[in-house]
Structure formats: C-alpha cells, structure tokens
Amino acid sequence: MGHHLVLGELTDYLSGRRLPDTHDERHRQAVARFLVEDRGFARDGLRAGVPLTVSAGEKRAQVRVDFVVPVGPRVGMVIKYDPGSLTTRHRIALALAYLLGAFRVPICVVTNGRDADVLTSADGRVVARGFAGIPSRLDLEARLGRQTPVRVAARQAELAGRIVYAYEVDDRCPCDDTVCERVW
C-alpha cells in the first residue's frame, strides 16, 4: 500500500477477502456496492483490480483496472477510480477502453468516490455526470444490443498502452507500490 494510510482491514464486498482498509479502498468498496445494489449488476460478474500489462516502446508494467463490467462475452463498461479531479482521469479511462479485449469498451466511468463522469469511448463525450448517470445492468445490456462491436486495431492499442503507461506508471507517486514495473 506504500503511500496509503492503512486503517486496519476490511472485507472486500465482491470477493469476501480481507484487504487493507484505506480511504481509497473504502471508496472502491462503495462503488462496488452501488453497482450491485443500485445498478443491478451481479456481484460475481464484476471484476475488480484486474491486472493489465501496458507498454510504451520497450518498457512494460502491470497496472490494475479498478472495475471491469462484462455484459455477456463482451466488456461493456470500465470504471477508473482515483481521488481528486475527474477530468484529469478521462484520458486514462478512454485509453483503457482500447486495452481490455479485441473490441473497444463502449462506456467509461471515472470516479473519485464522491462524483462520477460517464463517457462514451467512441468520441470521449461526457454523456452523464454523477452516480445516477452510471448505466444500470439493463441499460448497458440494451446499449450493447444496439451497437455493433468495434474491433481495436493494433495501432490503437499501442497508442492507448502508451497513454496508460504515461499516466499510471511514469506519473505515479514514487512510493506507490500498486504498479509492477519491469522489463519482460
């Protein structure tokens, strides 16, 4: 946990595992609870803390994606949590939409645990603000049913990887131990 104030332990809402109790983790837990209890997603369907290898040229690192929300065989939504300004996290979330599979993730959510911006990955537009704007399971299923999946080109994934690397690896706090940086 490096730079986080650890307040003890808490039980992860999704997995039931014990985790270090930090302010950031409390916000992530609240988001998970909201997705299940208010938005109708299945607890066992949400994926939290998903490891993702990103690269920038020859450099490689493993970062964690806060929440990946599958809808059937596709990823329908990605959620990026970080404290502070939402706007500064838009680009990271949009880049993640190109890295989580063969098809672009259509909806990106950026949250600081108190507020949220909902973006479409097709154009980066903010389509809703606040937790009330986060689509429900039924809304997300309907949206994906109306859209043709967009395949991610290799060049798009390469550029998205560089963006995530720049923000999440190069620009991280020096004492942040949640990123694994090494050359494979």
Short synopsis of the structure:
The protein is of the alpha+beta class and 184 residues long.
Query: In the CATH hierarchy, what is the class?
Result: Alpha Beta
> What is the alpha-carbon Rg in Å?
16 Å
**Average of per-residue pLDDT values:** 89
* CATH fold node name: tt1808, chain A
Q: Which spans have pLDDT < 50 for at least 5 consecutive residues?
A: none
User: Which secondary-structure class do the elements indicate?
Assistant: alpha+beta
Total domains: 1
Largest sheet: 7 strands, mixed
Helix content: 25-40%
Total of DSSP H or I helical runs spanning 4+ residues: 4
Query: How many E-type strands?
Result: 9
CATH architecture: Alpha-Beta Complex
Secondary-structure element order, as H and E? EEHEEEHEEEHHE
Beta-strand fraction estimate:
25-35%
What is the general shape?
globular
Give the N-to-C terminal Cα separation: 23 Å
Strands, helices and their partners?
Blueprint: E1 9-11, E2 18-20, H1 23-37, E3 47-56, E4 59-71, E5 74-81, H2 90-96, E6 107-111, E7 116-120, E8 126-129, H3 137-146, H4 154-170, E9 180-181
Parallel strand pairs: 5-6
Antiparallel strand pairs: 1-2, 3-4, 4-5, 4-9, 6-7, 7-8
